[in-house]
Amino acid sequence: MHRLLLVIGLLILVAAAEVFPVEPDLEGYQMILRRAANSADKLQVFQSIWGAIRSDFIDDTDKVKGLYTQLGNFIRTDMQCTSGPTGRSACELQQEVRRHLRSLMSQRLANLINAEESIQSYGMYVASSIEPSLVRDILEHTIEDVYFHRPLEKLTQQLDKLYTDRDEVSFKMMIEAQLSLFWRYQTMHDSNEAFLFNMAHAVSKIQTHHMYASVDASLQRRVEALNHSLPPVLGALFHPQGFCLLSRDNREYLYTTITDDWNYGLNGRQVFTWHEQNYTDSAGLIRAFVQEQHSTPVFSLRSELFKWYFFVDPSEGNRLAALRSGSPSSSTSFWTVTYVEDALIFRQRDLTLCAAEMLDKERRLIKMLPGQMHTPPSQACQWLPVDCAPPK
Questions:
Q1: Phi, psi angles (nearest 5°) of residue 132
Q2: Has residue 338 got a pLDDT over 60?
Q3: Between 187 and 80, whose confidence is greater?
Q4: Which residue did the predictor score with more confidence, 169 or 35?
Q5: Hey, what's the signal peptide range on this chain (predicted)?
Q6: The CA-based dihedral angle spanning residues 101, 106, 107, 109, taken in that order and rounded to the nearest 10 degrees
Q7: Pairing between β-strand 319-323 and β-strand 286-293 as defined by DSSP bridges
Q8: Listed range (257-266, 302-311, 312-321) with the worst mean pLDDT
Q9: What is the pLDDT averaged over residues 314-323?
Q10: Helix 217-229 / helix 168-188 crossing angle, nearest 10 deg
Q11: Phi and psi for 231 in degrees, rounded to 5?
Q12: What stretch of H or E contains 385?
């Protein structure tokens, strides 16, 4: 600190031939700059301050950030990118300071992520104190640093914590972080189904968030590009308006009956597939909701016509039915989901949702069957998510 004060004092004498009181921190240089005779002198002041920071305050993020901010103001108002007496431009100096600031901030954020500590407060500090382009640069370097140190599906969940409720700046930063992670994944040509599930979930939450409408168009386009790069089957699973399901085996669609009560004591309605291929209507509209967040999400499935959740009745051969009232149970209504190509596979424990035998000439039973844990299971246990036909 004494060396820094000496540097500042000498610069005052050179620039203004007068010594002014200086506080024992870097804020004093603003007074020096105001007294400097010309832009070249100001640039020399900045260069001397940067030298003092590198010598005595190399890890002080606030001092580096303060210098970076002041250099930006100086370049905009005084000097642009012309060279000073030393032959070194203000922009060259600013870029050197920027690289160091980026290193300090990305290293701190990466350390918090690797230690599984809260990143929300530090994320707010980063997002609110520097320009968006540098925030994006910091995030890209952070992701590069932690990419091989954290499970990718876990990393997606951690980055989600950058968002602070009702804060638009941190919401945009969280979006930038998820984008950086996904494009790093693409660049590495990795294959990780759990990561893709979690990323699809993150994108769905972003696009359905009330703040998304206020996000600038260029950032929205980048989110759309990410979404289109995900497996389409995951986009359908997380679609906020829902989907219909066709059995890959016979392309019959799964639907909930309107009048066929099911096991009166369990308060249910029956579920079948319909014999007509590729047919859908509103009775087949389904939405998936994330209930638990593990390495991959655990879902509940709801028939949207009357908001009935699907459940499995073990007393009736593990048949699928829809719960007319009440809350879904984790033991019978929570599903793990995997996918193969363009099809979804729904499981509970060691049972898999499959199209079974015909009940009559028009309806086929839907059951949870054992012995289908291989990948892929039989086509009767693979379900194609499709758009439902609009009501007539």
A1: -55, -35
A2: yes
A3: 187
A4: 169
A5: 1-17
A6: 130
A7: unpaired
A8: 257-266
A9: 92
A10: 40
A11: -55, 125
A12: strand 383-386
| Closest to 63 (Cα-Cα) out of 18, 34, 91, 23 | 23
Instruction: Give the pTM.
Output: 0.85
Contacts of 214 (CB under 8 A, 6+ apart): 168
The domain spans of the chain are 1-115, 116-230, 237-386
Return the amino acid letter for 285: L
Report pLDDT digits (tens) over 102-141. 999 999 999 999 999 999 999 999 998 889 999 999 999 9
Residues, the chain, total? Answer: 392
Residue with tokens 């000439």: 361
The share of the chain scoring above pLDDT 90, in percent, equals 71
Reported confidence tier of residue 18, pLDDT bands at 50, 70, 90: very low
Amino acid at site 37: A
Question: Tokens in use for 74?
Answer: 């100086």
Handedness of CA 19, 25, 26, 27 (dihedral sign): negative
pLDDT in tens, 340-366: 999 999 999 999 999 999 999 999 999
| Domain 237-386 classification at class level | mainly beta
Strand ranges in 209-267 using DSSP code E only, listed in sequence order: 244-247, 254-262
Rounded to an integer, what distance in angstroms lies between the CA atom of residue 379 and that of residue 346?
13
Distance CA 206, CA 220 (A): 10
Identify which of 137, 136, 134, 146 has the alpha carbon closest to the alpha carbon of residue 109.
Answer: 146
Cα 62-68-73 angle, rounded to 5 deg = 125
CA distance 29 to 73: 14
Q: Locate 81 and state its tokens.
A: 């990118």
